[in-house]
Amino acid sequence: MAGPPVSLSARDVGSFAYLTVKDRLPQILTKAIDTLHRHKSEFFEKHGEKGLEAEKKAISLLSKLRNELQTDKPIVPLVEKFVDTDLWNQYLEYQQSLLNESNGKPRWFLSPWLFVECYMYRRIHEAIIQSPPIDDFDIFKELKDQNFFESQESIIALCTHLQELMKAIEELDENQLKNEFFKVLQISLWGNKCDLSLSEFWEDSPP
Question: Are the beta carbons of 82 and 129 closer than 8 angstroms?
């Protein structure tokens, strides 16, 4: 019996995984660093000099992370003790167990793309929680708020459709239910297409 297919990784030059790790993830980190810069005065107003020191520390940690990514350094365990830290480090050990000696340690361009992208976001979170008193700052809040308000018409249209569907669902036959189910699937795929990390990248990329 055939085993599972090999996980997508940035080893495949020109693939989506390669472009993600090579271009998209560093760009996300650069935007995160820029966001911290733009909120420097806010941190000072709320926390004084401690806020400025925290901003510098968070930027330093994110810059280090970006360098590790771009130079394909080994993926390192999380250090800040948090509710999921042990789980992440256990999974990193599992990734290590999948490699042979010649491959060395899990790295950004070697390990599965989905793992390294999720790991990057977890490291962003770690950089923030290691930088009190700004450890509750949401780097992506502005972007999430902006996209939410820009999508209000679509959200209202979708909610209205679902409300009407629920009112009439008992009267639908099997084919009609199937059609409605496929509509919901298409809507779900549309939502994934509008993933912030994807849409922001492709909007900024040259045609």
Answer: yes
